[in-house]
Backbone:
């Protein structure tokens, strides 16, 4: 890619490929998974619940929860939707005292 001028003025190589005119704002949100929440959780006991500050739109089947625990095995043992069928929380089961990093990724065009 190159610029259209050596002086730094002009349209440049990205002209026409940026912004709302290229359709990216319509297609990427619909077709691409996105990280919608993330955090780190300290397992004070063998299980712990991560509750979102505000429920995520749609039920838990619209999201994938990915967790990583350093040196131990942990897993998502339950997911919870609120009364409006929005994803509200999930439960992690693992080693007491461990730190678990987690992300929630949208799937199914959520």
Residues:
């Amino acid at each position: 890619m190159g610029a259209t001028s050596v002086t730094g003025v002009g349209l440049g190589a990205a002209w026409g490929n940026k912004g709302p005119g290229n359709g990216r704002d319509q297609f990427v949100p619909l077709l691409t998974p996105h990280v919608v929440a993330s955090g780190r959780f300290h397992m004070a006991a063998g299980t712990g619940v991560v509750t979102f500050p505000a429920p995520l739109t749609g039920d838990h089947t619209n999201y994938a929860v990915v967790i990583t625990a350093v040196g131990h095995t942990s897993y998502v043992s339950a997911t919870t939707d609120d009364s409006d069928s929005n994803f509200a929380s999930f439960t992690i089961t693992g080693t007491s005292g461990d730190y678990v990093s987690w992300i929630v990724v949208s799937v199914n065009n959520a």
